[in-house]
Amino acid sequence: MQRKYEDINVYEAFQKRLDFIFQEFDNIYVSFSCGKDSGLLLHMLMKYKRDNKIPKTIGVFHQDFEAQYKVTTECVENIFEQYINEIEPYWVCLPMAVRTALSNYQIHWYPWNDKQKELWISNLPNKPYLINLDDNPIYTYRYRMLQEDLAKQFGRWYKETHDNKKLFAY
């Protein structure tokens, strides 16, 4: 198959995609790790939204793995606060099964394991948008589910709690 090149650059092509997304989808949320890819995506999405005066609120899902770097946690705090009036932040700290190669005896590690709080590497963030076992609106969550399934079930829950309208998830 031969490649077909357009007469626009990557930024312009992305703007065209955002035009389509904002016109065609009622709800949008971004899975945000605070890495370079999801960070750039979120900033560009918010810039587009502001430049085009779009009043739509964007959902932002951060799946906290408890053992993440301190600078990652600080980054999430800063970005959520920067956009707090334009986003629905979801900082998820729920027990989930994460594959691990660090043990000969266990194939999963469970961040935010409520049965072993004394072993937690981090403290729960003190934020009103924190989702944990004590305050969990995500009814599609299953206790200690696989991390990949938690991300998928968040999307299902988000759609259902936003009138089941067309959803675009990054």
Account of the protein in words:
The chain has 170 residues and is α/β, with parallel strands linked by helices. The protein has one domain. It is built from 4 helices and 7 strands. The strands form 2 sheets. The chain has a 5-stranded parallel beta sheet, with helices on both faces. A two-stranded antiparallel sheet has the order 4-5. Strand 4 and strand 5 form a beta hairpin. The radius of gyration is 18 Å and the shape is globular. InterPro entries: PAPS_reduct_dom, Rossmann-like_a/b/a_fold. This is Phosphoadenosine phosphosulfate reductase family protein. GO terms for molecular function: catalytic activity. It comes from Tissierella praeacuta DSM 18095.
Question: What's this entry about, in short?
Answer:
With 170 residues, the chain is of the alpha/beta class.
Oligomer category: single chain
Task: Give the H and E element order.
Answer: HEHEHEEEEHE
The shape is globular
Number of strands: 7
Helical content stands at 25-40%
Give the helix/strand class: alpha/beta
Count of discrete structural domains: 1
Radius of gyration: 18 Å
Described by strand count, sense and barrel closure, the largest sheet is: 5 strands, parallel
Uncertain spans, ≥5 residues at pLDDT below 50? none
Beta-strand portion reads: 15-25%
